[in-house]
């Protein structure tokens, strides 16, 4: 079935803003600028401040939700269902997971390439599947277990590409390995977030934009407050700021003042996460969850291509192999092989029988993406 112009717009918006989100964060990391008090130029490595910006972008989804509600109420026949009462504190545990996982991933992005960062996030499939079996009582079909095993193999190949390949000159091998491990560790926390959302939030039928905005509110407020003690916590070599603390927010703003392009990168990161969440939710609603998963995979290709074009990283053939294996693992886990198998002559159901579309929808519906799937 041919897509409408609106569907094409949504798909393009999701692909564009999702790519900008990672690329803008990496662009900010690559800048060098002087800090406060005339300190020498040093790299802009402020992962926790960047995470605050991301939550600000998610928080803005609340404004988009209320604008949508106001517009809907002006119609003769409102299309939005009346909001069900719910306790906003239900979003606090997932928001804490989101805050922790996002902060770890921004730290890791300082240590590894943007393409590896995006590929290794596919590890969330492994931990989500295992946790859903343990805590949600879900039974995975054989193809999903196979998808988990294939994903594990893909992670090994991408990790080997990072160790054997020639990374950019600013990253030591030890930093790259640490960054890759931190990304995988963060996916455990993201998987816990997804299980919490599945168990306690989805049953309340909260509008996705409202859910994203509420989690963004909690993450923005809590992490903003945590920036205060982080300003005094020593971090030695872990920090690149002159004071060697966990997060030197004042140094970040001084660097932004001396290099305005950093501000442009941060604005791109904040705005892109808001539009990406809106586009992702709309793609799932207007097209399918399958399309959303495919577009998210294409985002990795865009990020990799741009990183190669601007010289942030060098080409390594193992990354192609690793990406293809990860793509196959995600496809198996999400049931994308079912429509392909259904096309085979010996797998076609007889006329009048229930087709494979329902089975496909069941498989796709078996796992939900995190509410803020783009953080």
Automatic annotation (TrEMBL):
Residues 1-24 form the signal peptide. It is found in: Membrane; Mitochondrion. GO terms for cellular component: membrane; mitochondrion. It comes from the Eukaryota. One of its GO terms (molecular function) is transmembrane transporter activity. One of its GO terms (biological process) is positive regulation of cell population proliferation. It is a multi-pass membrane protein. Keywords: Membrane, Mitochondrion, Signal, Transmembrane, Transmembrane helix, Transport. Pfam families: SLC35F. The keyword Electron transport does not apply. The chain crosses the membrane at residues 48-69, 89-108, 120-138, 145-164, 176-196, 217-234, 261-281, 293-312. PANTHER family: PTHR13146, SOLUTE CARRIER FAMILY 35 MEMBER F6. Belongs to the SLC35F solute transporter family. May play a role as a nucleotide-sugar transporter. Interacts with SLC25A5. This is Solute carrier family 35 member F6. It comes from Chelydra serpentina (Snapping turtle). The lineage of its organism: Eukaryota, Metazoa, Chordata, Craniata, Vertebrata.
């Amino acid at each position: 079935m041919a897509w409408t112009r609106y569907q094409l717009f949504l798909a393009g918006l999701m692909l564009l803003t999702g790519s900008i989100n990672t690329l803008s964060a990496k662009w900010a990391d690559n800048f060098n600028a002087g800090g406060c008090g005339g300190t020498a130029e040093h790299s802009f490595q402020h992962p926790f401040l960047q995470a605050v910006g991301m939550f600000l972008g998610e928080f803005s989804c609340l404004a988009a939700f209320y604008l949508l509600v106001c517009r809907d109420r002006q119609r003769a026949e409102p299309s939005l269902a009346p909001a069900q009462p719910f306790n906003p504190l239900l979003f606090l545990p997932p928001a804490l997971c989101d805050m922790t996982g996002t902060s770890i991933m921004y730290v890791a992005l300082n240590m590894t390439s943007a393409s590896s960062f995006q590929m290794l996030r596919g590890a969330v499939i492994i931990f989500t599947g295992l946790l859903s079996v343990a805590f949600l009582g879900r039974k995975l079909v054989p193809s999903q277990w196979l998808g988990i095993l294939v994903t594990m193999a893909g992670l090994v190949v991408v990790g080997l590409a990072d160790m054997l390949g020639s990374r950019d000159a600013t990253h030591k091998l030890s930093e790259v390995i640490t960054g890759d491990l931190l990304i995988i560790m963060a996916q455990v926390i993201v998987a816990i977030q997804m299980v919490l959302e599945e168990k306690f939030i989805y049953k309340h039928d909260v509008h996705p934009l409202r859910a994203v905005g509420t989690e963004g509110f909690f993450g923005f407020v809590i992490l903003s407050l945590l920036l205060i003690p982080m300003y005094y916590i020593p971090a030695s070599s872990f920090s690149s700021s002159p004071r060697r603390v966990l997060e030197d927010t004042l140094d970040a703003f001084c660097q932004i003042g001396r290099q305005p392009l950093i501000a442009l990168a941060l604005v791109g990161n904040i705005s892109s996460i808001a539009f990406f969440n809106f586009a992702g939710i709309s793609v799932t609603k207007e097209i399918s969850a399958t399309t959303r998963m495919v577009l998210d995979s294409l985002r990795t290709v865009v990020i990799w291509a741009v990183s190669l074009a601007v010289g942030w990283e060098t080409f390594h053939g193992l990354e192609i192999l690793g990406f293809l294996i990860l793509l196959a693992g995600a496809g198996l886990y999400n049931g994308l092989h079912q429509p392909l198998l259904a096309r085979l002559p010996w797998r076609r159901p007889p006329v009048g029988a229930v087709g494979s579309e329902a089975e496909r929808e069941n498989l796709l519906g078996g796992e939900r993406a995190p509410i803020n799937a783009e953080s």
